[in-house]
Amino acid sequence: MNLSMKNLPDKTVERLSQYRRSLNNQLAKGKTHIFSHEIANLLHITPVQVRRDIMLIGYSGTLRKGYDIKEMVVLIGKIIDTDEGIKIAVIGMGNLGKAFIHYMYEKRTKLKIVAAFDINPDKIDKSYEDVYCYHLDRLEEIINEMGITVAIITTPPEVASPMADRLKEAGITGILNYTPRALSPREGVYLEEHDMITSLEKVSYFVKLRD
Ligand code: ATP
Hints:
By secondary structure, the protein is α/β, with parallel strands linked by helices. The chain has two domains: 10-80, Orthogonal Bundle (Arc Repressor Mutant, subunit A), CATH 1.10.10; 86-198, NAD(P)-binding Rossmann-like Domain (Rossmann fold), CATH 3.40.50. 45% of the residues lie in helices and 18% in strands. It is built from nine helices and nine strands. Helix 8 (160-169) links the parallel strand 7 (150-153) and strand 8 (174-177). The chain is globular and about 60 Å long.
């Protein structure tokens, strides 16, 4: 991977992941080539956006046939995957934590949830869909031992901030915060926040406006 690829805008990286999923669906349907406007239609974005992203990763198609889907899937994989895959921990094995584990279970992706952590004795030392739940006391040890680099926080919100500090200290470099408590950035840690309630309230607000 060259340096410029390392610094792709995060929205581009997000779209590359979406392109790859759509392209794989197209491959499964027997299609071999695709034009930017077709990708744009599938993802409800503009063809200009698609072409700009694809140029950024240094790919070009042919005018007549468009992009070679297989080649593009491989190239996107080279950019956004790592050879060994990424190991992920779920912090807080409640409904949301379990939903993540369930969703990722048996998905052939390089992203692997390999451990969960909790403080509730009912959850600890049990596996949920092959993911073992450890006591939080073992967080640093297990992260280190397994080489976990990403954590998804699905604890109650008040736990999120101290947990992010602890995760950083333990060597985690990517956090997906799924609690409604916004976190301040921590140096050296890529932070992504996803508050379901805010998203839903936003949708409801616009629905209300239309009524
Ligand atoms: P459940 O009712 O099964 O606990 P829930 O989703 O309603 O599920 P929450 O109160 O949202 O539970 O908590 C999510 C999970 O986070 C729970 O499993 C809880 O035990 C766990 N949890 C709470 N505090 C911590 C903590 N400090 N560290 C790790 N996990 C925690």
